[in-house]
Amino acid sequence: MPEVVMTCDWTMMSDHNGKEFLGFGTTTPAYILPERAYQRMFYPVMATDEHGFPKMAPYGMRKIEAALLDDGIDARIVHPSHLDKYMPGPAKVLMISGHDYFGLNPPSSTFSGVMKKEPLNCVNFKRMLRQPHVQAARRQGMKLIAGGPCAWQLSPATRMKVPWIGEFVDSIGGIDCVVEGEADVYVRELVRKALRDEFLPPHVVLAPKEAPKVEQISTIRYPSVNGLIEIGRGCCRGCSFCSVTTRPTRWYPLEKIEAELKINAAVGVKKGLLHSDDVYFYGSPNVMPKEEKLLPLLKLAKQHYAQVGWSHVAVASLMTKPKLLSKCAEIIVDDKQSWWGVEVGVETGSPRIITTGMPGKVAPFKASQWPELVVQAAGLMNDNHVYPACTFIVGLPQETEDDVLKTIELIDNLWDFKAILVPMFFVPLGHLKSKDWFRKDRLSPVQEELLKRALTHGLRQSKTLLREFFDWETNHRVAYRAGFRGFVSFIQLLAKMNGLWSEPRHPPVKIQDPNLTPDRLPVPTIPVRE
Ligand code: SF4
């Protein structure tokens, strides 16, 4: 019986029908259809054993679970529907994690702002902590520790800006400790203190210099959702709105990566995602991809998984070594896999925004080349069977109408590419965390047009992508495909009825001779911890 129980809400404790990308569906409110319909599509119930231990759990939680187990602490991840097995009772500490507790992150904040309803992740998070047995255990003194990528949402500063968060926390009897940052090392002593019933600091922010070294990061003990495993942490590009960039870049050696691939493969996981903020960049000490590092990584992943995807890649990395992508495709695409997906942070079509807020994103190219680079990268990816989800930010503090028009122009130039375009309202993070959230009531007509254009593009491309999305699956029934197609058609109809459908007024501009070459700039070096 573990003394330390870790959990998250139902939207996170799911394999999202075997498609990590469908997890985005948990960031919307339940709109018109009942919540159960969204659950079936986006966060079906995760299988558990008789102890309530999930078959797979979110990777970040597996890392913390492994850190505690390595330190001799009796900790386990438990499915949120099985917490009653441990509380009130043997569990002395409950640790919770989440990507977006209160729906404040993009894209939840965008969807909830537009639809004026709480997103599913927020609804489920609150429901999890309000369960009677959790409340009973709290009254009996069980400690509650919160962490994860969205721990900032429980910080005093956020509670000041969003008073209803404080009201919710008070209603569940408070939270003993909130930890922001990479807690792989710190969590061990913190949990020991909790088990000894000692005072816990209410809010801890771990500085980037406290980020663990590679050898201090534990290897997961049990399988992760959708075979996702990390290949490194941190990013050197320095975008002002991003919190990842404040941490040092570290790459895991292949042996460490293989150990985790084996953990998943041993229980029959056949497909998985390689996670880093730029997979193309694996093993590089600067912004130039290293073929001799990346290709062996992909070969290794394909030895253990039949299907391999990437979490993120940067446009500039791809365009620095475009031919390397076809070498990657030669390894990844085979008779078991016809394409792979990846998230790409495009953020804007405006070179001015790139210059003022994210100059590192384009390195080693010039900011003025950004829109061309994005279009060329989209073509490069599609040519190599990569279908990206491209994110855009709406409402950056320095954004002007001209910047938004340039982003719309870029979307128009991406119109025929197989991609999903995801506009997200600005959220104050990273170096911009003192700024204010962007909200729907601040939308200008031209920003509204951008949202409509991206929605139209997404719905138009979704039907094509869905066909391929499910094609490499043998275990997805025709009904699922038909269900998702029906859902997309339904949203498409609603969009047209509500005046939200917007097509480009001009045919996409074809870039004839982009002549994109990196500037002769010295390649910046960044600290890399092995
Ligand atoms: S490139 Fe991506 S991960 Fe890196 S700093 Fe910019 S937004 Fe963050």
Question: Care to describe what's here?
Answer:
With 530 residues, the protein is α/β, with parallel strands linked by helices. It folds into two domains: 4-210, Rossmann fold; 228-504, Alpha-Beta Horseshoe (pyruvate-formate lyase- activating enzyme). It is 37% helix and 12% strand. The protein is built from 17 helices and 15 strands. It has helices at residues 35-42, 59-70, 108-115, 120-129, 132-139, 156-161, 163-171, 186-195, 254-266, 291-304, 315-320, 322-332, 351-357, 370-383, 401-413, 445-471, 478-497, and strands at residues 4-7, 75-77, 93-96, 143-146, 177-180, 203-205, 229-230, 232-233, 249-251, 271-275, 307-310, 340-347, 386-394, 420-425, 528-529. The strands form four sheets. The chain has a six-stranded parallel sheet with strand order 2-1-3-4-5-6, with helices on one face. A three-stranded parallel sheet has the order 7-10-11, covered by helices on one side. Helix 8 (186-195) links the parallel strand 5 (177-180) and strand 6 (203-205). Helix 15 runs parallel beside helix 16 and helix 16 (445-471) runs antiparallel to helix 17 (478-497). The two termini are 37 Å apart. Residues 511-515 and 517-530 have low confidence and may be disordered. It binds iron/sulfur cluster. Residues 235, 237-239, 242, 244-245, 277, 314, 345, 358, 361 line the site of iron/sulfur cluster.
